[in-house]
Amino acid sequence: MAKNLRARIPKEDTLLICDSNANVTAKFVKEASSDAESKEMEVKVSKDPREVAEKCTTILTALPEPSHVKGVFETILSSALPAFPKSATHSSRLFIDTSTIDPTTSRGIADAIHSSSAGHFVDAPMSGGTTGASKASLTFMVGSDSPETYHRARSALLHLGARVLHMGPQGAGLAAKLANNYILAISNIAVCEAMNLGIKSGLDAKKLGELVNSSTGRCWASEVNNPVEGVSDGAPAGRGYEGGFGVGLMRKDLRLAVEAGQGVEGATLVLGGMAQKVYEHVEGKESGKDFSVVYKWLQEGGTIK
Fold first, then answer.
1. Is 207 a known active-site residue?
2. Whole-prediction pTM value?
3. What angle is formed at CA 128 by the lines to CA 74 and CA 38, rounded to 5 degrees?
4. Per the residue annotation, which of 27, 30, 39, 177 is the catalytic one?
């Protein structure tokens, strides 16, 4: 994502990055500086999120858990941020949080930013996985009360993705993302179970995949991220389920979706509880692997008692 951002923003702009993983940061800076097209495009490393907020007009955050997002913004808002010089393109900061967290936490952060006059804030979770991130084909779901703020955020997000949708007011982007990932969590299990059923019944994996992906069972989990090695080119199944979308993150997103459903009258999530148990068991055995590793767990006799 950062590489696409640096390549697409104006050459005269500076990209400041901050990551808790020093090795990943160093690797990115090295790659950016060695890229012939990027030599005139400045990349700097900030010591903490506060420094990024002090020096940037647009701040994007992408973090795993609600507690991480809260911690970062507590650091940023520890004291009043300095004003921008009059020559700056924008008179106020724009905070774009692309993390998948609960809408309540996100609204609380937005309120803190707006009440302290630190800038504007939108929730903008993304969909598309690691493939979408590398190819800049991500879809962003934005929650914003202001059309003007949304359009400013949209301009920034199009450096990272292909589609930006305004889902509604503050928190609506996250509500949409949780609904989408609820579908993803359930459909992934269904695809893993169906592929396991077919293969154990004597069917060829590739032929079964071709059939499903040209029929009514077709979905992202069957076509792009098929859990059986050799069915989907480039899928994590072909590299021992390394990379991709971690099973722990899928478990977290499903938990957030189920919790959101419990707070919405009439939003019954019948399959959510059982799916949570599946991901809990799978993470215990295959922590860090792509969530399609559910298939491997099933192959090995995984079951819920």
1. no
2. 0.90
3. 75
4. 177
